[in-house]
Amino acid sequence: MSDYLLEMNNIVKTFGGVKALNGIDIKVKPGECVGLCGENGAGKSTLMKVLSAVYPHGTWDGEIIWDGQPLRAHSIAETEACGIVIIHQELTLVPDLSVAENIFMGRELTLPGGRMNYPAMVHRAEALMRELKVPDMNVALPVSQYGGGYQQLVEIAKALNKKARLLILDEPSSALTRSEIEVLLDIIRGLKAKGVACVYISHKLDEVSAICDTIAVIRDGKHIATTAMADMDVSRIITQMVGREMSNLYPTEPHAVGEVLFEARHITCYDVDNPGRKRVDDVSFSLRRGEILGIAGLVGAGRTELVSALFGSYPGRYEGEVWLDGKPIDTRTPLKSIRAGLCMVPEDRKRQGIVPDLGVGQNITLAVLDSFSHLTRIDAEAELGSVEQEIKRMHLKAANPFLPITSLSGGNQQKAVLAKMLLTKPRVLILDEPTRGVDVGAKYEIYKLMGALAAEGVSIIMVSSELAEVLGVSDRVLVIGEGQLRGDFINQGLTQEQVLAAALSQPNGHDNNNDRKSA
Amino acid sequence: MNQVKQLFTRYKMLALLIAVVLIWAFFSWQTEGGFLTPRNLSNLLRQMSITGILACGMVLVIISGEIDLSVGSMLGLLGGVAAILDVVYHIPLPLNLAIVALCGLLIGLGNGYMTAYLRIPSFIVGLGGMLAFRGVLLGITGGTTIAPVSPELVYIGQGYLPTVVGVILGVLLFGLTVFLTWRQRHNRALHGLVLPSILRDSVRVVLIGFVLAGFVYTLNSYDGIPVPVLLLLVLLGVFSYVTSQTVFGRRIYSVGSNMEATRLSGINVQAVKLWIFGIMGVMCALAGLVNTARLAAGSPSAGNMGELDAIAACFIGGTSMRGGSGTVYGALLGALVISSLDNGMSMLDVDSYWQMIVKGSILVLAVWVDVSTRAGRR
User: Which pTM value belongs to this model?
Assistant: First the structure.
């Protein structure tokens, strides 16, 4: 009998020929907290889905030993019965049901005849909340009455109620305030003392180093190292996380960077559901003519919120000013922004980019339809001519412009969305994750196009989660962390380590704005 | 089975036409030819015109992803206003038309404002309007029928065009068909696109010619083309043009298909919705006028359940429930199906409860066929 609660040995998971996980080993002792670190897309979530049998036994290679016995689970229900419980990044609570009802979701205590045994459930829920040291919580109130932090605790109570012996926390703190995080970390320490093991997945390395006993780093699906936290520090974790060789995937077109064209001043965005929380906290930056500005940061750092506020499409309350050519411009709605010369290609192509019932050509001309109209009648000739020109310029592979846009590949759909925005002749172009879900060939063409646009004098802001991409195409890199500007680098000899260190860094001199800006 | 599905998906409108033919054949057989007499067909088309006028507006509303349940009551209210202005105040017809149309526009814009700007779901706005407009109608008429309306107003609902005008109209429409077909071929050739075979296009033109000739001949052999049918034809032309050729039309589809992407493309999606409801209001005014004229009276129960017929017509005519796709001529074919069922079953003296059961079942059946063929494509 080994002294490990969980051993995952040589896990390999393949998606259509691509190895998402390539030989990962993770071992967890009872009462131990293992931090799982890696860049976006390194394979952390995939690994946890293997463990919790979202990918059932047989769809991956390797073995899982649970409590000394091989585990061959085929469903989440089986792994939960063993005591492996995962808490996902997006909470899975039903807001209108009470705390107790949520805790017992799917395993309700019942009286004969199927009636809910509320007294027993409330009693047990209260006991659980006492265990988590939040005795003042009224478990009969709906979950929506409590803030993000308390909701996270309800999730943990729900997990404990399932008699969890191994708790997997996937980015548990991404929706929490600093003080709420402290409470969360305290609770995890308490659970550890009771012998519950944890796998803690987070981009926030300060939390990881505060709570974890062991750090396992994976990169591109490979297991890099497992080290005791005592022998590690934040910078060594970062080195292990990045350590990738850059190949020449990024065509560079020489383009001159001119005078300051665009400025964002004091942009602050408040969370839609939790208006006390700032998603973007007083960010200001400037952009020069013909400059490609990469915005790096971890998922959830506030990059999309920042650029959508610039474009006037942020759903919540936000403040700030946008200046173009030394004059403030009104960008409170996308229509006004586009008229002022500011365009955005949004992050979620399916939801925000394409119009599925229209053809390829009609999608491309959507934003500039007025320019083809005589007395509101669309000049079909002029429209088609323009569409064909764009299709040629973008190397968009579509047999004809009347095909439904949904019949194109992701890369070609993205080119169509780009073409739509370029027809408005923007002076500043915002690209939010322009190469997400796009194949390598189309990626290359999008980079080339960006270079060509910059050479024409268009200024480009590119948000990307791929650090290699940011460093490959940008002239300058802004780093956003937890809604704040953490760094502003000229991209000359800049390394991924520097960018990642800035993204993960503690906001030193948090209260001292001058310090941060001069850094 | 799959092939049948594919054919069905491609030639949906053809399938709908076949359905109409089958319904007509059935009723004609049951009534021993009585259904297909010029007199009855003329009557059928006049009945259809009211549902058809509403469906013209409703199809825009549904394509944009909304719904308007208040149109039946709004039709009744505006028809009642027209009757009161005519009977009580003796307002001349052109002014009466203008006032009623303006009222329709304003009420429609009100509905649109509440939906688009105040973000009240259109289902609720419509439900509220359905009750409230009917209430106003009952209030202003005192629950009694307003009659008799002037002969000028009656002409809108019961008049006929001289037969010569009918023939000229038929020839003009045929000329337009030939011209549009030629222009489409010309444009496609210009851009190197595959042309449909000349035979197919010729057959199509000839078929349309036969239908037009039959239409004019049949109606002329009764009393001529009814005025409301002419109105419906004009609306069909205008709305087909708007939906297929104009910027506003393109935006209706775009808003209904993906509102967020449309908004992010710099389009004022709220204004688009506002005006769609405004147009719907004007259509209610026209339908109300025709209805009052047809009955020669303003009735407090006018247009009862009218919204359901209009909505059913759109869905039978292949308008997507999610929004984003649909055609005006499809909706009018749907209205023809519904009116044919109404008319035929009345001729057969089918009990009204059976009429409701049959109509309801046909609606569900038609949408089921639509949904199942759509799913095959995605």
Answer: 0.79
